[in-house]
Amino acid sequence: MRSDILKLLTDSKGYISGEEISGKLGISRAAVWKNIKQLKEDGGVVEAQTNRGYRLVSLPDILKPEYVGCYTARDMGNVTWLQSVDSTNDEAKRQAREGEPGGAIFVAETQFGGKGRLGRKWESAPGDSVMLSFLLRPDIRPQQAPAFNIAAALGIVRGIERVCGISAGIKWPNDVVYDGKKLCGILTEMTSDMDTVEYVVCGMGTNVNQASFPEEIAHKATSLRIETGERVDRLRLCAAYIECVEEIFAMYMERGMGAIMAEYRERSAILGSEVRVLGLKQEYSGICRGFDEDGGLIVECEDGRRVFNAGEVSVRGVNGYV
Ligand code: BTN
Question: Which ligand 1 atom is at minimum distance from the Cα of 120?
């Protein structure tokens, strides 16, 4: 689907004729018709009337860049949409190995090998989520990569606020939560040698339009639809995520951790609370006192302050998930 045709359709208040579209864009009427057909096949609703032309009633609920692009002025040239993929993070890494430049984004409708933190699986029913990965080639030291976890979580929270009007929190390092349940998970992966980062892939999956969750996870998982009481426009959300996450990544790259930590603290769902930190072999508990320069978690344990690294531990509340 050509985005310039979409733009004419979305800009025109009422009907726009095939002739006008073809004249304005210098393409044949047949090409216009072919594109309208594609739009309908994707699930868009277009009214067609003899002598009046076409009227776009609604866009498809598919995260192709041309549709997401209707809600952002950002050029969507480096956004790749995949109907189905093992994992958007894995796709981003494959493309990175092939030389894809930093800044590329991979969005999927379905994942059949979705990955979570600490080797867990990430399951998501097709069409209900927004899943995307950012490929970055930042000039940073490997120890700084966790900052992208922090930055991504902030971007997601801002995007949710913009589109849904609700203020979600962040459970360190980067689970986005609402009312004690998880809305979005983020997985940041990196390829580097001892002192140079080759690339970072930061992938996020949000529960958007799920009406309910299986009993085993219903106590700790929620969706934007459950929390707002209405279906959420995934196109708007995806566009807001791209804008907000890129904005915070840029803030971090230009001005460092100091530029994003104040907001991260404000949005934290655990700062000042008692937490349990689950390591592979040991469990610690104490009060969350803050976060260090590299995005580590500072906990006041009985035997003193400890700093935990995001790659090694999970955090729980004393009585449950948060
Ligand atoms: C977690 O909460 O453990 C992290 C979940 C991250 C899921 C997203 S979905 C898009 C991207 N692709 C993946 O395979 N994982 C991330």
Answer: 3
